[in-house]
Structures are given as C-alpha cells and as structure tokens.
Amino acid sequence: MEDQEEDDLQMALRMSIQHSPPVPKRSRRRDADGSSAPSPEESRRMQRELMAAAAEKRMLASRSITVTTPSVSTPAPYHAEASSTPAPKDNIIKGFVKTKKEVGRELSTDEAYRLFLMVFGDDVSEGILTQWTNQGIRFSLDQETSMGLVQHEGGPCGVLAALQAFILKYLIFFLDELNNAAPEVTQFFGPRRSSRNQIQGSDEFFNVSEGFKLRALIRSMGEILFSCGSGNTAVIATLNVLNHDIDGENNNMDDDTIAKALEGLSIKSASDLQKILRVETFNVQAIVYQRLQETLPIFQSRMGAMLFLISALLSRGLDAVQSDRDDPSLPLVTAPFGHASQEIVNLLLCGEAVANVFDGRMDLGGGMFLKGIPSNVEVGFLTLLESLNFCKVGQHLKCPKWPIWVIGSESHYTVLFALDTTVQEENEFEERESQIRRAFDAQDQSGGGGFISVEGFNQVLRDANIRLPPERVDSLCSSGFIVWSEFWQATLDLDRSFGGLKDSTGLMGKKVFDLYHFNGMAKSDLNGQATLGGNSCPPVQRPRLTKLRVAVPPRWTPEEFLADTASTLSSTGAGQDAKDAEVAKPEPPQHAPVVDCIRTRWPRAVCNWVGNPPSIV
Q1: Alpha-carbon gap, residue 91 to 59, rounded angstroms
Q2: Taking the model in full, what pTM does it have?
Q3: Distances (CA, A) of 536 to 143, 526, 530, 533
C-alpha cells in the first residue's frame, strides 16, 4: 500500500508540472443524510492532493529564478526528457525533472561497438586514440588569432576546421545578433539575413569579447548538430564522470576540476566508450542551445573534439551514416595518421557523411551510384587535390551561402574566408564562363572527365549560343569527342559578338578583393619570438592568420592579361580609374599551395601577402 501511495504521489507531482489538475480516481461515499464521511483511504488521497498542490506552488515560485552564465547569453529554461522512472520530489528544480547523477542514457553494447568500429576501425593504434582524446574545443589565447580554435594534436583538424567555419560566419556576418541576450530560435539556427544581398562583414572578428566567441561557438555547434539530424533532432554526447557537476543548477567547474575528473581516463575499446558516454536526444532547438551552454566545459576539455564528432554521428544516426558512405567498411578516422576523413568533414558541412565533393549523385549504371553533396551549404570546401586533378569540387561546396571555405590538403584542414559577400558575385566574364561550363557539364557523361560526344557538343553550342566557324568545329570534332580544355580555348579565341569571350579592351572581368586564411595548428612563430635580458625566449606557439590580396585577371593566363592591360593603358593614357590602375599594376605575385586552392574557385588568380606565407599543413 505504501508503494501505491508513493506511485500516486509521483503521478500527482508530474500532473502538477504539466499544469493539469488531478483527476479523481473514485467518487466520495456519502452517508444517508447526504453528508460526506471521509474514509481512511480518502483521507490518504486528500493528503496526496495537498502535497501535490504544495509541490506545484514551490515550482511556480522557483520558475521565476533564471540561470545565468556570465560569458554566454541566457537561454530559455531547460526541460529534460521524460523518464520512465519517477524522480524524487526533491529533484524537481527550476521547472524540470532531473536526476542528480544520471543525465541522458548509456549507449547499448551494440551501439558502442558499432560507433567505435565506425570511427576508429578494429585495428586502431594507441597514438591515434591519444590524438582524438586530447583535443579540446578552445579558442586561441594569442590576441591576433583569438577568434580561432587552436589545435595542439594532429588528427581532429577536420572537426575543428568545420566548426571554425561556422563560428566565423557568426562573428563576421551576425555579430550584432550575438549581442542579443535571448536570441530568437530562427536567428539562432536559421539566420534570416540573405547572403545574396551585398553584405560587408565586420572586420572586428579578431577582436571580440570572450562572451561573443562562446555564443558563436554554441550556436555553431547547435546548427551543425541539427543539420546532421535533418533539422529535427540533435544528440549531445557527454561524459558521465562530469554529469553530476553539469546539472543546469550549479555549473561552476573550472579547468582544474575537469582535469582532475579526467585523470587516468582513456578510451581504448568500445567497452571504454560505453562506460564513459552518456547521450541526450532533443528535438527542440532552444533546449539544445541551453544544454550546449551547460555542457560547454566538457567540450572544452581534452575530450571535446571527439565528443562533438560522436554527437554529430549520433544526430545523423549510425544507420544513416553507413548508408551515406560509399564504403562503410573503412573507419572514418583514417590510418596511419588519424586524420578526419572527407566523410567527417562533409557530415559537419552538409549533414550527410558522403565521401565525395561533387554535386548530387553520379550514376554508374546497373543501379549503382555515388553520393555527393545534396544541396547548397552554409559554408563551403576547397581542396588542393582538385588542383592536382584528383577530384572535382561541385558548385554546392565551391559557392556556399557565405564566403567561407574549409581548405583541405593531403594531411590537414584549414579555413579561408572573406569579409565581403560580393567576392562570390560573378562579373560578366565569370557569368559567361559559368554558363558555358554548365552547358558542357550537362552533356558530360564521363563522371567529370571533361569530354563529351560530337552530338553533345552540338547541343552545347546551341544551349550556350556559341557560333564557331565551321572549320573550327570540324577540328574539335575530328577525334570523335571534344575535350573541355580545347573547347574552352576556342571560346576564348572567339569574339564576344559570336558568343565567345575575346575582349579587345582587355578589361572584361577583372576583380580585386581580400581573403583571410586561418590555420589553427599551433606552430612556432619566429616573428613573435621575444627576448628577456638579451636572451632569446623560445618561439611562440600560436595559430596563424594571413591576409591575402587577390587579383583575378580576366583572361586565360595572367601573363596575357598583364600584356593586354599594359598596351591598353599606354594607348588610353590616364583615362583609367584608380581601381583599373590597381588591377593593371599588381605587386609581383607570390605563390604557396593555398594559392592553388584559391585558383580552383577563381581561375587565374594571383595573390600577395605580407610576412610568412600562409600554410595549409
């Protein structure tokens, strides 16, 4: 009977939380004269209802209390997921039911095994596991690069670079909204501002307060997780060794407390993963925002990068991740150096763990196909491998909504970005070039090989309204197929009046703009080396931020452009405006591998910078 009373009491408490009045289970027995004579059972019921009413009164009073964190804006109250086990009444705090030490749920043995095998494989080295369990999500302490996440271990750079790209989106283009104490959900996860409008971002991105940076980080994490969950679900993975201190009521853990809690903690197998992980699933965006704020110390700990990757994978769903991939038998963290695979980067950028960077799907015939990027993305991706002809990045990644790109090299990921959305606008030359390229690609059945049939070529000429001389058409078709490079050269030699790109003025399509490159890997900076008492101190370990001046000549080669503009200037005298002169007389071009990446987005680009060359390794 006591157990039944306790169950009834818990039911009454839960009803009071939901603002639903308790429904009587039975009618009161009446005496012959119509008066009520409460039985012992009814007396107990009345006592339960009084206790429930008192609990409700206490809860209504406690809801007026707001949880605040000094450096992060205050979100809406957090409501934990409903549990099948009633919580004791003294755990009803600030309007939600929670447990003291049990937050979320453990992974099942099967889930933990599948997750570990998917990420690391069955033959992972201890060194790779060490890399991935010793990288927190933290901003650089160096003033010049304080807006960037710093990386100390090799391996998780793909996770950090993708997250960094989203952080920059908020710091550059949504800095004013970060100042809102309680941003709207639509502002948090889906900014209403359109990148199609001309927007000049803030140039104070490297000099913002810690509070702004943390808000940008939390919003970026939430946006990525919900993107992985198709906009409906987000999963947050945390550590059960810390959950008793991260309960939404008293979140005052410092670095020393976390470091002590993580002492001796390692992950060497799926069973280790199962023991330490707890996961929470949400489908309300505002709740995710608060929970990320509460658990931020965990993500800043040495386990942070791995926990965020696991959160993204679970948000997508393990079955969906494996379905996205071309070869699900391979681990997502690649051997022998433990780098993040393209599938990890794509998952964080577009919400799907596809292995390819082209647009849409590539049909291989026989019901087989390869998956690429399904739609346009917020921030994009460029890779050195495209300049080496190993792949072709599609327009979804190459032309994202905001001018920010993750840069991939053979062994590292960095970030390239601009402060002005107009760098993505096509001028007359680029617009015509894109039109011709789209017409050619529509007839290319080689999977990006860059050649088409004679029949397809004739269709391209019609679609692009190009009128080549008959003898040139015959020459291009003589081998039975047409190669893009030869066709493109023919259009460059063809006058604009016939649908080509030849411009006698030499001024068609020029463009000058600034880009910034950020490499989060902390390296020695000899320029920042200090001296003490006449003796040199050890070089400063810091990320690197480089400003690049980019000029895009309008012709096939920069040399042709410079020759044409020089002759044009000599014939026209001082008639050119200041910007034309700036384009016509650039500094001697400099080269680094990042320039090759930039040229996959802006062909023929020449770059200049001050100081050390930007590094993508």
Answers
A1: 11
A2: 0.71
A3: 21, 10, 6, 8
